[in-house]
Amino acid sequence: MKKVLTLFLLVISLTIVSACSSAKEEAATPALDDYVKALTDAGAKDQGENAYALVNASNGKLLALGTTPIQIIEYDSVDEAETALKEQPKLKKWSIRGKVLYSTKSDEAKKILDELKK
Fold first, then answer.
1. Using one digit for the tens of pLDDT, what is the confidence trace for 14-41?
2. What sign for the dihedral angle of Cα 47, 53, 55, 59?
């Protein structure tokens, strides 16, 4: 009986530890809101939502830095983002950071986006 109880407590402890470590990894990856905030802090103007649903993304934003558009879309997971990048012809030239994909021709915007932690 003691062995079963000890084994049960060990399994519960390992489950809790693994769940907590997964949450920290997810929190460390910048989300769409982090990218939008970094760009708007640098002077980008919000142009509303883009057509993110056409590429099965969960969220998206269209911004403009000066006259140059910046499109940012977010998927629910890194795997979904990587799959979309490979399978969606419209996204072939987009950059990927975690579960976020973005497209812009502005070197200033690319620099701001690249400064966010991976």
1. 566 566 555 444 556 788 899 999 999 9
2. positive
